[in-house]
Amino acid sequence: MNRYTYKNDSGFFDVEVQTELIVDSELEWKITYTAIKGGINQGGSLKILVPPYQHQRTEEYLQAYDYWKPNYLYAIGEDDGIQVETRIEKVSSAFNHIKRWPDSNRIAIITLLNGLNEGEKIHIVFGGIHRPWLEGDCPPTRVGQLAFKKEGTYLHNRVWIDQLGNGNYEEVQAFPKIKLIPDQPKSILLKAPSVIQPGKAFEIDINVVDRFNNPIFEDDNIGQWQLEIEELEGEKKGLVEYKDKVYKAVIKEEGFYEITVKNHQDLRVDKAVMMCKKSDEKLFWGDIHIHSNLTANIRDNDGGASPKVGYQYAKEVSHLDFICMSEQTFEFNEDRSVNINKATWSKIGEEADKYYEKDKLVTFPGFEFHSQRGDTVVLFKESLAEYPYPAADVKDIPDVWNYYRDKEHLTIPHFHRYCGGRISKDQQEKKYAGFDISHWELSSENERLAEVFSSQWGRFEYGGHPMILKAKSNVKGNTLVDFLNRGKRWGITASSDGHDGNPGYGGVTAVYAKGLNREEIYRGLCSRKTIASTHPRIVIDYSINEYSIGEVVSGERRKTKIINIKAVAPKDIKQIEIIKNGEVHIKEAIDKQWAKLELRDSEVIEEDTYYYVRLTQIDGHIAWTSPIWFV
Question: pTM of the predicted model, to two decimals?
Answer without folding.
Answer: 0.94
